[in-house]
Design goal:
- This protein is α/β, with parallel strands linked by helices.
- The protein has 2 domains: 5-115 and 294-309, Nucleotidyltransferase, domain 5 (2-Layer Sandwich); 125-291, Nucleotidyltransferase, domain 5.
- Helices cover 39% and strands 22% of the residues.
- The chain is built from 10 helices and 12 strands.
- A 5-stranded mixed β-sheet has the order 3-2-1-4-7, with helices on both faces. A 5-stranded mixed β-sheet has the order 10-9-8-11-12, with helices on both faces. It has a two-stranded antiparallel ribbon with strand order 5-6.
- A hairpin with a 4-residue loop joins β2 and β3 (27-34).
- α5 (186-198) runs antiparallel to α7.
- The chain binds zinc ion.
- Zinc ion is lined by residues 161, 172, 174, 176, 179, 181.
- Zinc ion binds next to loops.
């Protein structure tokens, strides 16, 4: 009997990642292409081309899972708007199913990253976890009993827009002030540095410093870099404490570019997490770094296909 595979696609603002994933969740092959911006039909054609390029026969493919950077109407796999990709009112599931002749399932990228970490990464073997992705923005996926928890209108897990600092004057893209995203994202750290230097703060850091520069400067003892990391850890620890108090997940997984700082960020975050949590929650909640990195979306998208087809 021929081996069967899932096709997992991670659609990002800059690149499309496609993976062939076997029934155990292991990636067999990976492909990548730049995302054509604001060209929906062209992107669908590109998906088809990338799937053909794998050389796997149609009868060996079980289905296609796609993670997208935005909200998905879960009932029918349509999308109202993807700002990063430039799509508006598209029926991704229907359109791609017609082109490839396979079942297609669509969900939000942070949700699928969480599902991927649960299947093959830092949440392996667990049933309840929250996976928070910290990059230029902040997103999260909530897994309850091995399934994505969507909430009404699939709005669950939007932790980036928890108001974490009500006194902040920093405006978020969502229109509010003081969101978690404006305190702990890579963008937030870079902006913190810029404001501090413009305000006359002494530092080794250049005004255009990246998060990598900030983490390196902190290791050299730069006081501004240490302050930025402390601010990030404080608000992240506070948000994670609130999330853990409501959901009591077995584990919280931290992924995304900012998580590359590793222990330098994790250690102070856990200290703040403990400070803000009850003893019981602090004791029972593990906080760990993501393991799959850029592959989480592909693996999660494949698991989505497996789950949907088992229904
Ligand atoms: Zn916001």
């Amino acid at each position: 009997m021929k081996e069967k595979y899932y096709i997992g696609i991670d659609l990002g603002g800059t690149s499309i990642k496609l993976g062939i994933v076997d029934k155990n969740g292991d990636i067999v092959a990976k492909y990548e292409a730049p995302t054509p911006h604001a060209k929906y039909e062209e992107t669908i054609e590109l998906f088809v081309k990338m799937i053909e390029q794998t050389g796997i026969e149609k009868d060996q493919m079980l289905g296609v899972g796609i993670g997208v950077p935005g909200f998905v109407n879960i009932e029918d796999g349509s999308i109202d708007e993807l700002v990063n990709v430039g799509w508006k009112n598209v029926h991704l599931k229907n359109d791609l199913e017609k082109k490839v002749g396979l079942p297609v399932f669509v969900d939000n990228d942070a949700n699928l990253a969480a599902l991927g970490e649960m299947w093959k990464g830092a949440g392996n073997g667990l049933t309840d976890l929250v996976c928070i992705t910290i990059g230029t923005g902040v997103g999260a996926g909530v897994i309850i009993n091995e399934k994505i928890y969507h909430g009404k209108n699939a709005m669950a897990g939007e932790v980036g827009h928890i108001t974490i600092n009500p006194h902040s004057e920093i405006r978020c893209n969502c229109g509010k002030n003081g969101c978690l995203e404006t305190e702990v994202s890579a963008t937030a750290m870079v902006n913190f540095n810029q404001r501090a230097i413009e305000g006359g703060k002494e530092t080794l850091l250049p005004i255009e410093a990246t998060t990598k520069d900030i983490f390196e400067a902190a290791q050299k003892g730069d006081s501004l870099a240490i302050e930025i990391i402390d601010n990030t850890a404080n608000y992240l620890g506070l948000a994670l404490s609130q999330i853990a108090t409501v959901l009591a997940p077995e584990r919280i997984v931290i992924g995304g570019g900012v998580s590359k700082a590793g222990e330098l960020l994790l250690r102070p975050t856990m200290q703040y997490f403990k400070r803000y949590s009850t003893e019981k929650i602090a004791e029972q909640t593990e906080i760990v770094l993501a393991e799959l990195e850029n592959d989480a979306g592909i693996v999660g998208a494949s698991r989505l296909v497996a789950d949907q087809m088992a229904k």
